[in-house]
From TrEMBL:
Pfam families: TIR
GO terms (BP aspect): signal transduction
Matches recorded under Gene3D superfamilies: Toll/interleukin-1 receptor homology (TIR) domain
Domain TIR: 19-160
Protein name (database record): TMV resistance protein N
Keywords per UniProt: NAD
Amino acid sequence: MAEDDVVSSPPAPAVAFRQRWDVFLSFRGEDTRESFTMSLYKSLDREGVRAFLDDDGLNRGDEIAPSLLADSAAAVVVLSPRYGDSRWCLEELAKICECRGKLILPVFYQVDPSHVRRQTGPFEEDFRIHERRFGVDKVLRWRRAMEKVGGIAGWVFKNG
């Protein structure tokens, strides 16, 4: 083929792909919904950050769809004293940790990061109860997720 016969196609247009949510918020509603998490949500919204809060199109008891997590660029996990007593929160955390390449930003709200990492302090009894109820294998997945997130440098808030 002669050099003059080469047909070049125009460059592909730049496609601006933006995920549906900038941030997925994971939190224990009873601990922080009406205080810290709502304040964080409102601050993010004021700055133009699209944050998914659990009442945005999700009914109580609905499963967190993997696509919901995939449609978020990052996850902010607000770990509070009762986060570990919720099977829902722990399952959500495990799914977040299973998303490869997902930016995870932990907020340690009135808990010590080492307690999260080791499941001690306020989490110790919760995990014993979960192991009796759901079995060691299932709870091991949750423990690994807590260990992972507890090992990420995040923000520590000791006072509410």
